[in-house]
Model the fold of this input.
Amino acid sequence: MFGRRRFEVKTTDQLRHMRAAGLVVANALRAAAAATSPGATTADVDRAAARVIADAGAKPSFLGYHGYPAQVCVSVNDEVIHGIPGPRVLAVGDLVSIDCGAIVRGWHGDAAVTVACGGRTDDASARLSEVTKEALWAGIAAARVGATVGDIGHAVASTVAAAGEGYGIVDGFTGHGIGSAMHMDPDVPNVGRPGRGPRLVAGMAIAIEPMITLGGDDTDTLSDGWTVVTSTGARAAHWEHTVAITPAGPWVLTAVDGGGLADGVALASLG
Done:
């Protein structure tokens, strides 16, 4: 079950369970995004995701994790990650990042999206979210058998750099291995050098999650012990997917379409 350096390598059955968890996450995020409307509270967003997870017979990955009190993270504007849902009322133009995890038969899926409350926001915030999403997919494209974690970080950082000046890559938090636990080795930073770091093998699964800001990479943690904000007050965006490494290419377990790789093709390539 564990490969070199004891990174968890999954069987095809285990990846099927992760795919099931990933689809629960995808559906929960869709419901949570739909609930992100003017006048709604961040607790409403949490409840929308919680209903989907419960109806699927899955378990939330986040609730109770090191004492975390909710089923999703809802981070607004200058909040980068780990925002705790509560009474905060959302307004048109707020930039809202929603992070969700679910467990099926002991196997985890984890993903995040950023949405504009009311379906619209200022141009800079909209572009920030798009750049972050583009960086995520660049990192996913680099996640292939024989590649390294450094290749992924380099792809993410290069995409952000190509988007122009003014963006900051939060480097104090990273992506991670995932499977029988939500957070596992290896760390998957959003910066890196090609060819450096742990090498990816078929059957590994990782969460890739760029966190990009409209200025600077410094962050602070609020007194609640969870919510991470930009030190400058600049807005931030967060996009994430769980990805299985297969000989046929990256299989995006938390994307409904598998990231363009059919489930059957991915599983067949693993033997």
